[in-house]
User: What shape does this take?
Amino acid sequence: MHFFTLHGVLMIFLFIIPGIPAAFGNFMLPLQIGAKDVAFPRLNLLSYWLYLVGVLIAMASLFSGPGPADTGWTFYAPYSIRTGTNVTLAVLAAFTLGFSSILTGLNFITTIHRLRAPGMTFFKMPLFCWSLYATGWIQILATPILGITLALVMVERLIGVGVFDPVKGGDPVLYQHLFWIYSHPAVYIMVLPAMGVLSEIIPTFARRTIFGYKAIAFSSMAIAFVGYLVWGHHMFTSGISDTSRMAFSFLTFLVAIPSAIKIFNWLATLYKGSIDMQPPFLLCDHFYHFILDWRTYWLGVGFVSHRYSCARYLFCGCPLPLCHVWWHRFYFLCGTALLGAKNVRPHV
Ligand SMILES: [Cu+2]
Assistant: This one.
């Protein structure tokens, strides 16, 4: 479990979340909207230092005290409250990295609202900026919830206040609600910027203007919004009611609509394009396979196997549903975000 926690925490908080927005967004956003810099350069620098401090704390949590956390990257209570491993430092690292992420989102949203060059209206912005804009709102609205939740874990571990541990009168399912209210939208912090990259690369290498510009722009916003409503799909086996399960399943399918809007508009952009098979384009193609697999998975196999595995879990205690979450994280998320990130390079 130490290894999986390490892998999860480093991959999610240190790499995929800041990856495209912090590394590429900072360079591309001002360039693409004709600004000299982001709106708050000093805050930007603070965000960088917070990231660095968060990384150092995460590293320190591996080598100090009672050894690396063994909770998994989700820090589920009550285990995360009770385990003797170094959860407090690991959680503090995620807390600090969260601050860095919030400041980046704040900066990008202000930059887009205030620093667009004259004539650069919202609907003239490149689609990568739209994706950063949608991502920024998630970073601002969702990340604080994670921050507060992790702070409560620290308080409970250090002072013993009963928030999540039932022995102290706390509620462990509350932890899952709070965690996933952030962590599902965080899926879109990771993938929306990658989708923005695709919306730039595909028209460039198909040598056509993007098909359905406004639809793609709005679909980013729609994904960001609907992403807040689906957290319960991570809790199908936590004892939530059948009604909640149905509602969260339905809402989760809703996300497929704006995602499919993107995919079909990309396809329409490729149609009759004069495609230049350069490496960035091939990586987009690969991304396509990831995301199409994902959608097929949700709509077909996913739904059936999900119900089946939930039932198995309820009746025989078989932890198969976990495989679903693993798949979601590692295959889809890391796959698409990484391929998106690899795409960012100067156009030929
Ligand atoms: Cu989710």
Q: What stands out?
A: Residues 184, 187, 233-234 surround copper (II) ion (CB under 6 Å). The chain is about 75% helix and 0% strand. Residues 5 and 67 are 12 Å apart (CA to CA).
